[in-house]
C-alpha cells in the first residue's frame, strides 16, 4: 500500500509517518520502481503501535524503547513494566502540576471583577517579580 493508504489504515498522518521515518523511529519502507513508498501489514502494525503509545503520552524516546522491547522476543516483561511505571510516575507529576496551575488560575479569575476597570489581579500576579519567574520584567 502507498503512504496514504498506510496513513488511513494506521491512523497516523502521512506527514507524521515521514517524520517518524526521518528520525529513525520506524524503518523507511522499500520503494516501488516509481520511487513511491510501499508499506506492508507489518509496517502498518508498527505505525498503529506508535500511535497507541503516543495516545498514552509516551515520548518519542520512550516509544523507541518500547519498540525495541516489542521486537525483542527475549525481553523480560519486567523491562516493559519498569518503563511503563516510570511513565506513570511522570504523568502523576504532570497531573499534580496541572492541577496546581488550574487552582491558581481559578483563584486569580475569582479575584478578578471582570468589569471595565483596568486593574486586573490576573495580570498583576503574572507581573510579580518574586524569584526568577520575572527577572528583568517591566510593567
Automatic annotation (TrEMBL):
UniProt feature coiled coil, ranges: none
GO cellular component: a single term: cytoplasm
InterPro entries named in the record: CueR (IPR011789), DNA-bd_dom_put_sf (IPR009061), MerR-type_HTH_dom (IPR000551), MerR_fam (IPR047057), Tscrpt_reg_MerR_DNA-bd (IPR015358)
Biological process, per Gene Ontology: positive regulation of DNA-templated transcription
Highest taxon listed in the record's lineage: Bacteria
Keyword annotations: Cytoplasm, DNA-binding, Transcription, Transcription regulation
GO MF entries: copper ion binding; DNA binding; DNA-binding transcription factor activity
Listed SUPFAM superfamilies: Putative DNA-binding domain (SSF46955)
Subcellular location: Cytoplasm
Domain HTH merR-type: start-end pairs: 1-69
Keyword Transcription regulation: yes
Keyword Ion transport in annotation: no
Xref: PANTHER family: HEAVY METAL-DEPENDENT TRANSCRIPTIONAL REGULATOR HI_0293-RELATED, REDOX-CYCLING DRUG-SENSING TRANSCRIPTIONAL ACTIVATOR SOXR
Stated name of the protein: MerR family transcriptional regulator
Originating organism: Cupriavidus agavae
